[in-house]
Amino acid sequence: MLEIYSYFLSVSFALADNWSDELEKKLKLIEQFPGMGRIVPDYDVSFIREVFAGSYRLVYSTQEDVLKVLRFGQWVAHSANYNQ
Fold first, then answer.
1. Is 48 inside a domain boundary?
2. pTM reported for the whole predicted model
3. Helix 2-11 / helix 13-32 crossing angle, nearest 10 deg
4. Are 12 and 23 in contact (CB under 8 A)?
5. Fewest beta carbons within 10 Å, which of 2, 25, 45, 57?
């Protein structure tokens, strides 16, 4: 995530600041409401979910009150079945 922030910062401070604010808001929401994200179609299990911050996809799991970030990266739709 730091690499992405650094890239945005090299383009524009405002872009980096807005992106990090959006990501921070998403993470706080997930902490409060872990079931808010969409179930990831690739896994199709209730404890692996995803949310989006701009064009970046955050995949996380919630089990036994532990939140783990499983994947974070730029999201590219590979299928017409993905709707965002």
1. yes
2. 0.74
3. 150
4. no
5. 2
Which residue from 39, 66, 34, 4 is spatially nearest to 26, judged by alpha carbons? 34
Counted domains in the chain? 1
Backbone angles phi, psi at 82, to 5 degrees: -85, 125
Query: 7 lies in a domain?
Result: yes
Q: Report pLDDT digits (tens) over 23-42.
A: 889 989 998 999 999 999 98
Q: What angle do CA 17, 20, 26 make, to 5 degrees?
A: 140
Domain range enclosing 13? 2-74
CATH number at residue 18: 3.30.2310.20
